[in-house]
Design goal:
UDP N-Acetylglucosamine Acyltransferase, domain 1, five-stranded parallel sheet, Spore Coat Polysaccharide Biosynthesis Protein SpsA, Chain A, 2 domains, globular, 13 helices, alpha/beta, seven-stranded mixed sheet
Length: 466
């Protein structure tokens, strides 16, 4: 361990200067030590076994609902709200953009929490905290629970890949830092004091999910299943489709038989085919978790608050000022990987409607359309006649960034409840009251723009517009 100290010292000093707590520095040191020892962050196919059938939410009985409804008074809703949505051209929290019916993601999340009668706590990043808390001032009812409205994810230095020293970018110092993945949930709950406050006020259970997944609502039936099984941890999973081949999947550790999560970055390149084989690895992690906070507190105390998770090594290429780009590393962990920490952890197959993340403007178009509906309790669901949302591919040259997307749908998004798939190639604008049905490919000639006229209905066409 002594030879680790000189190489880690610059990282520790940078974190101390940024005000990071001791536990955050300790966790980075543990993962840095693994990296120095030669860990590549991979989980190989010969280390795991595919899962057979899992229990499903549809099979849970009325007793689960009754137990869950009784446990609601001891339950808190935690939303991961650290993302800026840079892939959509945003420089603010993604949760603040309009999601549906004139409401932002955060507006709908607050309404979901208030409808369920549970407190809402955000895990913000340094980049999202101020704007998110400002938005929450519109909801004074949240203060009635006398709990913090948020806690902040830690930040860690990015590393040069060649020498594992802190990345330096004086022209853009914010580029020197990165979040340590949502596995930081556990140490951040400790260092913020939020876990201690929750336990002190009698909260026993937490439901945690991504802020961009409005389908992940607090379901008392699933809560009741967690309570009835006296489980410390439950992960919601869904059946993988071709669209989910690149997402993390659930498996069992060969030998122990324990559940584990393998993310795409943890798969060796020569095993990509097995990783993406949806008939072999059937279930993907929706990143919606249920925790018994008493069990979590006990496990953290047993481990001196160091909940070590499988390492994820994320490689990126960044510009170093005006010089050539350089290869850097980000050391990350996933919160779902804690399923391996708890031998009694459960996985439950949930319906696809509980997984509606918005990662691109393709997803946002489906969400804003009538393919999805908001109920009175602000739970999001597919239109009754739909089993899955339409598959949408918008030309990234014209729709990828949110401002460009909004310009092309300024008159409103088309009806998609009868649409199975939509592919748009080129610069196409949409007037009001348009209905798209079946399987559609709409193409605009290169370097041209076109507008679909108001009131138009198009069904099952491969159409080129001028």
């Amino acid at each position: 361990m002594n030879d680790l100290e000189p190489s880690f010292a610059p990282l520790a000093e940078r974190m101390r200067q940024a005000g990071m707590p001791k536990l955050a520095i300790t966790m980075l040191k543990l993962y840095f030590q693994r990296l120095r020892a030669g860990a590549d962050g991979k989980i190989r196919e010969n280390e795991i076994e595919p899962l057979s059938l899992l229990p499903t939410a549809a099979d849970l009985d009325k007793s689960c609902r009754q137990q869950g409804e009784r446990a609601l008074a001891e339950t808190v809703l935690i939303k991961l709200n650290g993302g800026l949505g840079t892939s959509m051209g945003l420089d603010q929290a993604k949760s603040l953009i309009e999601a549906k019916n004139g409401l932002s993601f955060l507006d709908i999340i607050v309404r979901q929490a208030l409808a369920a009668g549970v407190p809402l706590i955000l895990m913000n990043s340094f980049a999202t905290r101020r704007a998110a808390l400002e938005r929450l001032t519109s909801y004074p009812e949240l203060g009635g629970f006398n709990l913090p409205l948020d806690f902040v994810q830690h930040q860690i230095p990015r590393l040069y890949e060649d020498n594992l020293q802190p990345f330096s970018c004086p022209a853009q110092p914010e580029q020197e830092w990165c979040p340590p993945g949502h596995g930081d949930l556990y140490p951040a709950l400790v260092t913020s004091g939020v876990l201690e406050k929750l336990r002190h006020r009698g909260y026993r259970y937490a439901f945690i999910s991504n802020a961009d997944n409005l389908g992940a609502t607090l379901d008392p039936v699933i809560l009741g299943y967690l309570v009835s099984r006296q489980a410390p941890f439950l992960m919601e999973v869904a059946r993988r489709t071709k669209a989910d081949r690149k997402g993390g999947h659930l498996a069992r550790r060969r030998g122990s038989g324990g559940l584990l999560l393998r993310e795409a970055a943890q798969c060796p390149e020569n095993e990509t085919a097995a990783f993406q084989d949806i008939s072999r690895h059937r279930y993907f992690n929706t990143n919606s978790l249920w925790l018994d906070l008493a069990a979590l507190e006990k496990e953290l105390q047993r481990r001196d608050n160091r909940l070590e998770l499988p390492l994820i090594i994320n490689r990126k290429t960044l510009a170093e000022g005006s010089s050539a780009s350089t290869s850097i590393l980000q050391l990350e962990t996933a919160m779902g990987a804690a399923i391996e920490i708890f031998p009694e952890a459960l996985a439950l197959e949930v319906p696809r409607r509980r997984f509606a993340p918005v990662k691109t403007t393709d997803d946002l178009l489906a969400l804003r359309s009538d393919a999805y509906q908001l109920r009175k309790d602000f739970a999001l669901g597919l239109a009754p006649e739909l089993v899955s949302p339409p598959l949408i591919q918008l030309d990234s040259r014209y729709y990828r960034h949110i401002n460009d997307f909004n310009q092309r749908f300024a008159a409103g998004v088309p009806s998609l409840r009868k649409c199975r798939s939509l592919r748009v190639t080129g610069n196409l604008f949409f007037a009001r009251n348009i209905s798209l049905e079946g399987n559609l490919q709409l193409t605009i000639q290169e370097n041209q723009a076109a507008t679909l006229p108001a009131g138009l209905t198009i069904a099952d066409q491969d159409q080129e517009y001028q």
